[in-house]
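This entry is retained here.
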Amino acid sequence: MNPKPHLTPLWAKCLHLLPPETAHQLAITLLSVPSLVPLFAKTSPNPHHFLNPSSYLPPSLSLISRPIGLAAGFDKNAEAIRGLSLLGFGFLEAGTVTCLPQKGNPKPRLFRIPNHKALINRMGFNNKGMEIFSQNVSSLPHSLPLGINIGINKNTPSPLEDIKKLIENLGKYAHYLVLNVSSPNTPGLRKFQEPDALKPLLNTAVNARNSLEKKIPILVKISPDLSDEEIIALVACACSSHVDGFIATNTTLSRNLNPPHPLAAQQGGLSGNPLLPLANHVLKVLASHVKTHYSHLPLVIIGTGGIMSGQDVYTKIRLGAHLVQIYSSLVYYGPTLIQSLEDELVSLLKRDGFNHIKDAIGVDL
């Protein structure tokens, strides 16, 4: 099968004439007015019955009717969720949000590498804080599947207290929560992927979640820069703390760019097409270990990192992902990409004789 290459809309190309962060903020501003969305993006038709994941997801996620979601980082303050929901995503993840407002790192801190379909960012959890975020999500319809990605403030005296406050205040608005312990842009954050530091953080998060009126899944977002041994240790720690799943992966500090590019020297996390091999390797190691040792647990695995085509989505599903997320490809190709990914994914499933997406999950493990 040779799918047609996806074409970038003219308006998206015009956005690329602006500095990356300016273009991003303009996109958020436009999407925050749902009535404007049909002017630059088609609202998505009903999902393919092949792709409805609700039959294999836990009840708390049964509202998700399509497997492709939006990754965290695009809408940090949940300002454009209503507009984004019109584009055909099965679910949306907002954040990363911290307890207190945070300016993030000095600008410029976001860079495009178009010939590699890649981004480098060192944003540093810039966001307006928990109170503004709460105001933005409190009026959203609960029928809209929403994940909330939470993190700790850069100079917090108590990371555990931050996590507790965020879950207690925002958990009631979420269909799932994500602990972001893998961003490379907050000093010391990735140490929380080590079991000795991760265990108390997870215990705090799970206890805070258990105090909520509604029990929602807690997922851990992990780095693509972990060794196989570190992935296995992290999974064991998370499962012993009764976490509900994983997102693989965040951005990478590596620079797998061929040919090389001058912007590779910029500090920050690399995302987009060059991340795909690393993210897929981590996903495979993670999903294989879960399948071998924790198949008795209803764990959810979301694959993200490097998706540019329906084939990339299909590969992650075959490597054990129950759902997938995109971000960088949305920047480069615009929102019409979502329907293209779905259509290509359906064609691939039919080609290989699968009657439903669930039948393809993990077949390459």
Summary: The chain has a mean pLDDT of 93. DSSP finds twelve helices and eleven strands in the chain.
